[in-house]
């Protein structure tokens, strides 16, 4: 029988799905064991038990000086920046994308520019961002916005252009003004794509967030990782990495669920 | 004993460490390594912290680092480390800079931008000490990457920064209202720039120590003579020109003569400095979870005295090879 | 003055003629079928009737009005596909035909309630009341086209334009749609233009059948000349060719003579 | 007439397309003028003329010591890293994506794992990467690979799953083995998507490249930007940024063209 | 022993029965049309004939062989859509029917040349020689289905399975396809199973027409029971119902009696 026709049974499938995670864990445990056997004070690959203890401490114990639990403070700060950055990027790209997709004048004006701008490496522009937006929260949010907006805009504009011409004409024959076509024909059909776009961009958004926090900050997940790197506290770094992964996963899942719930017509079919 | 013939040193860009790059480029290192029948590769790493991390993780046999970072990262991480060469101490290279008028005492309630947990942080702590303040009295410290310090300084949010050269001279030159209110010349000998190597490796391979020391002091000789070609090469490698580099050197107390370096390593103040550094590190939680107290890591000095935990000596000042250079025995 | 008047209309894309010297006069309430070879310009002609495009020469006017420059409520349309809005339920699609004309695009309060009632009545009429809350994608092709027609009629257009409305349906459904359209027309007395590939369909439904074809033909460059209306059959008389072509199309005569 | 029905004439269109670029240039020139008027030594926004002069020098003048033109050396080094990184990522994600899409056992084994791994922030793992792969070229390439492979793999696997089941069955009825189905049915249909994926990922790849070069390198576009950032040599930074933008644009355009040429069947249609 | 024998076949998904006790014997060269309500399991039955799925109970064998576990060259298939490979030209699609069976998936040298000639002959036969170098997407639906059939025949299957092969075509094309299929069958004498929605089509083309329906019906839970073959018409006799149901389906009788 062809390998593509072999289908695992339910229990096998569950086992298979767990396997790579177990393998990574075991590989890590062994690597850690070897290094710790050589140098018990080794910081690079702390024992899983130690990571567990550190994670517990980070999640529950307050800072020595202030009594605040840093991890939650960091999480809150980073999520806020992410929320604003992605929120603004989504809004801007939605407006721009719709305008480019629907209005020929705007299309001529912006589409070439957006295509070029989407190729600029945003990290290299950080110094200019700082000067223009200051060192505070604004510049971090702006870095995220600048980093992800152009690509989202391009994609959304394309999606608007993909709406069948027939629908736009039909709307006009029903007396729809440009604004009504935007609000009632294009927008609802592009929104699911916007969410898909946000899901795609979140990876880059995290990247820019971490980069921005590494440059100038006093709180945030990226800040903490870069700070503790200074004394190679890999137990803290790994806890934070796993935590960020979990957050990213939950956000992705939530967006997927929202999209499914909010746009039932996408799944309608004979 | 594990003898080997290939060694790797890591260094990062900083006034007092530029000779390491020149050693590799000019072939002087190869010459000395050949003399002792070994091979030494000197690798430039842009990110200073990363270079120490890599050394700590065992990727390198030695790394250029300050006394403070050596204590916190490799020594704190259980890697027994020896200061093979004491290259210089910062003598104004690190500075607290504020915008406009006002002195150190006026920092009260203001935010300060610096690379957290670095020697800048230590310098700030020492400075604040001197005027009876502590970090708590500030409006907070904001971790700011050294690469972006100059850009950061030009923004309105920033009122004070602590940083090192070439950034210090860059900021002081480019902005009229920038004033250095405290610098490392006020705590001479506390911020030492070292080449630290793995103690075990050094013990097993004395030739390694000899070759590195020999090569280093050959270049020191050239620099002491003001060899323009050498200095220009270093200047360009650090991204500045000869004039700029000379200005930075002026704020650096280079130990061109090995005897001076030996004297610094053997000085009576060193144990006091290291104790203070250890306390600073402990206070910031940098020594890690396993550190029950500030003297958890032992530091050994050339005369055999130890500060901190004598049972856990992980950081040693060893003048053997610098002394050999001083004696012309290499 | 006839209801829809097409006078000496030319259309060209990128310098290539697609339609040439198209003239036709249509009375109110007539059902015009349009047939012709693939690519001959039937849809182009419909797009001009719709005012989606303006002809490079000539003019089209409805009821003696000025030539339109863009589509509007007086011209309804149903395409082969994509004529309904996939993100609205069947009922919302019908209500949209009233709401879209409002500045906000929405109806509120009692206006909405009234529109909803009218929509439900329309749904009964087009036989879709049982699927009012479903999305178009879950309807069969025939139901979607019925919805599209119902939606177009809700806007009460003066002319209804159909571009191969049944081209994607299978034959059984197609016959049902013919009956449906015939009934609707009997009720409303609408002026209809329908493009079709299916001659039989054209003759069955239409009062007149217009044939588009090229009169001039350059063997070196088949794309050089555009098509025009070459025949205008009276389908009410069982398809006997219309004998008064010159009366109606003075431009085809050597000496053009106007006729209002 | 509705705004969406206004179509600009050809000359207007060209003018419109140029407008934003001109606007940015003018805005920059004014900003630069103002800052330089205040402080002639200001480095942040060098005069356009100075950028031009710097660019000319960077592109043509050799290094005093070695005579090599650094910009070309940097470009070459960075492009090589990018090429290897993206090349490896493309190969790995193609193989993995095809396996996940076609072989049920592999799908069970890997799809969950890849979904989780694609959420890990790669920048946070930099220290570990450097230790495992050393500080040479390998770790830079690996960062790019780790950064972009998981997302590409997910997308390609989805594309393989999107191939109508009918085609796979039909191939089997023509006697195709699993291998033949891979090579002759799935691969040719997924290749265009692979190129689209590469185009999408190149932005992130540049990001990771620049980040990696900033940590450990002595040549490369990212390294040079990092080096001169300390001195705020914006004339050099801007030249490099524009150069990177141009390179990215050309690569994107080349990939688009290759895709159009190589897969004529994609554009076939009635 | 008949050519294709389906014995007491059951199929269920997620515990819900779709097909129950399906029995049918087919002689070599027969053309079997399969009709039934939408969703009653016609495609499921075809998938089992194809060995794309194995029944939960019972067995299907061809020419007395062991039941197959996966599709292979002895069973050809044409679906309503997606039956040809969009990334290959028309000619390559035909050649693929020979090349795919090779270990590498490709034919080389003289074997390729020979296959190319045979492919061109097949293209003439299915009337697609003039578009040999085009991609399927640029063909009309009818041409695509002709290509799909030609491709399936090139592999010389023992049984040809068609799942609504003309479902997406318009009526004119459909009639042409009927003639095409009838001709091809006359030439090859192939055993064919064809699922169709169109009763007329089923009777026109088939030697026998199998009707799938539910015999048991639970009003509380319409999905509980599966369908089976409820009628087996002999379409050669002009559609007179086949009278010997019990002879052929012993499982429907109170006392099962085998018949080879
Ligand atoms: N916007 C356009 N730009 C350039 N050429 C066009 C455009 N629209 C249509 N054409 C060309 O004009 C000709 C007529 O097209 P049209 O769609 O009107 O034909 P049709 O008679 O409707 O054909 P079919 O029966 O296939 O629908 C075709 O050759 C087509 O390629
Ligand atoms: N793989 C599957 N898993 C679960 N249910 C299935 C699966 N395949 C088919 N079904 C269900 O089995 C039933 C029969 O499906 P099948 O496609 O065989 O019907 P059909 O007679 O071919 O219908 P149609 O005329 O619409 O093609 C349907 O209710 C369908 O939802
Ligand atoms: Mg048309
Ligand atoms: Mg079916």
Automatic annotation (TrEMBL), chains A, D:
It is a multi-pass membrane protein. One of its GO terms (cellular component) is plasma membrane. Pfam families: BPD_transp_1. It comes from the Bacteria. The chain crosses the membrane at residues 12-30, 82-106, 113-135, 205-226, 232-255. PROSITE patterns: ABC_TM1. Its main location: membrane. Keywords: Cell membrane, Membrane, Transmembrane, Transmembrane helix, Transport. GO terms for biological process: cellular response to sulfur starvation; transmembrane transport. Residues 79-255 form the ABC transmembrane type-1 domain. It is found in: Cell membrane. Belongs to the binding-protein-dependent transport system permease family. This is ABC transporter permease. It comes from Sagittula salina.
Automatic annotation (TrEMBL), chains C, E:
Residues 4-239 form the ABC transporter domain. GO terms for molecular function: ATP binding; ATP hydrolysis activity. This is ATP-binding cassette domain-containing protein. SMART domains: AAA (SM00382). Gene3D superfamilies: P-loop containing nucleotide triphosphate hydrolases. InterPro entries: AAA+_ATPase (IPR003593), ABC_SmlMolc_Importer (IPR050093), ABC_transporter-like_ATP-bd (IPR003439), ABC_transporter-like_CS (IPR017871), P-loop_NTPase (IPR027417). It comes from the Bacteria. It comes from Sagittula salina. PROSITE patterns: ABC_TRANSPORTER_1, ABC_TRANSPORTER_2. Keywords: ATP-binding, Nucleotide-binding, Transport. Pfam families: ABC_tran.
